[in-house]
Amino acid sequence: MTAAVEVRRANTILYCDQFADTVTFYRDTLGLAVTYANDWFVEVHVAETAHLALADATRATIPASGGAGITLSWQVPDLDDARAALLERGIAVTDPSVRWNSTYVEFFDPEGTRIELWSPAP
User: Fold this and answer.
1) pLDDT per residue over 42-68, tens digit each?
2) Both ends of the chain: CA-CA distance in Å?
3) CA gap 95, 120 in Å, rounded
4) Cα–Cα distance between 88 and 6 in angstroms, integer?
5) Prediction pTM value
6) 121 pLDDT tier (thresholds 50, 70, 90)
């Protein structure tokens, strides 16, 4: 079966009540490179064809969700190294767990969005 649409790039947009803190978290704490920015919208590079945009909910027509119903799930090459780097930056990260043949950890951004880092289980 042929896909109905051909996706070449994935952009996820989070509408944020805590816009400045959330931008600081992704840009400075996680170290994701900014690919576009203006005074109410910032896009960061997550992976080769994946970007995350952060929009100031007070300036947008879509309200913030407070992280409800959203999980950002990112595969990383070395989960232990990624977890250690997050802990060094003061981020509260869960202990590794195994689910669906993957080892994963979880943490949250200032908006309450759940972020899951995972690697294939050994």
Assistant:
1) 999 999 999 999 999 999 999 999 999
2) 33
3) 16
4) 39
5) 0.93
6) confident
CATH superfamily of 9-58: 2,3-Dihydroxybiphenyl 1,2-Dioxygenase, domain 1 (3.10.180.10)
Instruction: Please list the residue range(s) of the chain that carry CATH number 3.10.180.10.
Output: 9-58, 70-122
Phi/psi at 107 (nearest 5 deg)? -155, 175
Cβ atoms within 10 Å, residue 102 = 16
Q: Which CATH class is domain 70-122?
A: alpha beta
Residue 34 and residue 43 in contact, taking contact as beta carbons nearer than 8 Å: yes
Contact 102, 121 (CB under 8 A): yes
pLDDT at 67: 94
